[in-house]
Amino acid sequence: MFTAKRDNMVAEQIVARGVSDTKVLEAMRKVERHLFVPSDLQAIAYADEPLPIGHGQTISQPYIVAYMTEAAALKPGDRVLEIGTGSGYQAAVLADIVKEVYTIEVSEALSLSAAKRLSDLGYKNVHFRSSDGYAGWPEKSPFDAVIITAAPSDIPDVVAGQLNVGGRMVVPIGDFFQELCLITRKESGFERKSLLPVRFVPMIHRPSKH
Question: Which residues are marked as active site?
Answer without folding.
Answer: 60
